[in-house]
């Protein structure tokens, strides 16, 4: 029944990037993205795995509307609210944690804001300035800010990279719970296969630059129903699929890493 | 405490120097102070200082607002920078006296001409400083504001202005002292009142005591503004910086 309802849902995001190149400093062009096309339905979580420097961040920037110099089209419904968690927290250093979150979500009720901050274990830091926070905390604030706008589309650019594993695991659980309770359409870029296996419905593998989609792996067990053991076996499955790709297309262990 | 001691030393040096120079050339602090008191009693001092202060504020506000807006646009768009830069260089190198004299010739000996002349003198300096700030704006925060669809005025107030604040503050600090010095010249040349006019009259009478009395009174007023208005604003604006862990 769940699936039937989802199939009827309107698509939330349609991406077709035929070609994206940067002008290289030495002259000429640097091809970054090639023939990337996919569609996301409401509430779907797609994860992208690819080697460092393959163009994942560029792809996110195009989808977020920050870069429109590419061939192709990105379609989002009008009046679509968007939230991005960048690789860097990008908080306003001159505003407190509470003000940073409040700024992007002026209509959020006090109670909703308080409960969101509590969910992310930030309630003790509301009055702190970002300069007083550790990187892990600042990342959590960036996540809270993104969730506060109740986005129709959430873009996450390696949100938990360089955090210690215990904290990252806790945040992943919180995020997964929040995504579930809000049917958030999400696009997640990650290096962490277990993270992907826990959070995503579909996994896209990207090749080295110029990046193209080399494989799509559907994770069929519904996200909410995955046991820890299933997550482990799905992680292994994704790793196996990556290993089976021809070397030129593997998303991991690229020569530029 | 050290600042206060230094101030006492200043008055002591002044007093000693006045003993050697004689009361005609350099009257002592006591004489100057008594003239200040007399001028204050008649209300003359408050009137003249008040008028000058009003001109200072008008010219200062004009130069800061126009300079911030122009500097911001020039720092953000290449075309505006290319168009404005030659004008800026001309303005930066035009002597204050030339601007004042021309303003009075073209605009008549009017209040508007006087205030405009002062504002135009301060303008290029504000533009240069704010342009520097606008060039240094963080593109990452810009993108954040765009992604979260912050309305323009909100982005301006919360994202852009706080980044420009140190540059605007620097322009304001140097601006206040520059503007009041130029206002005095304007008053000397073409206004019938104000501290500059008083000093001009005293000059013709060779009344050094009165010159010093007015100068000192005005410096005290500016210092007061500096400590009571400018510094608290700066402290509040940089609260997030000093508390960094």
Helices and strands in order, then pairings?
The complex is a heterodimer of chains A (257) and B (245).
Chain A: H1 2-8, E1 11-23, E2 29-41, E3 45-49, H2 56-63, E4 71-75, E5 82-85, H3 97-104, H4 110-119, H5 135-148, E6 153-157, H6 165-182, E7 185-189, H7 193-199, E8 202-206, E9 213-218, H8 228-244
Parallel strand pairs in A: 3-7, 3-8, 5-6, 6-7
Antiparallel strand pairs in A: 1-2, 1-4, 8-9
Helix pairs in contact in A: 3-5, 4-5, 7-8
Chain B: H1 2-25, H2 29-42, H3 44-76, H4 78-93, H5 96-107, H6 111-135, H7 139-147, H8 152-190, H9 195-204, H10 208-237, H11 239-242
Fold and architecture overview:
The complex is a heterodimer of chains A (257) and B (245). Chain A is α/β, with parallel strands linked by helices and 257 residues long. Chain A is 35% helix and 24% strand. Chain A contains eight helices and nine strands. In chain A, a hairpin with a 6-residue loop joins β8 and β9 (213-218). The radius of gyration of chain A is 18 Å and the shape is globular. Chain A binds chain B through residues 61, 64-66, 81-84, 86, 88, 90, 92-95, 103-104, 129, 131-132, 145, 149, and chain B through 140-141, 143-144, 146-150, 154, 158-159, 162, 237, 239-241, 243-245.
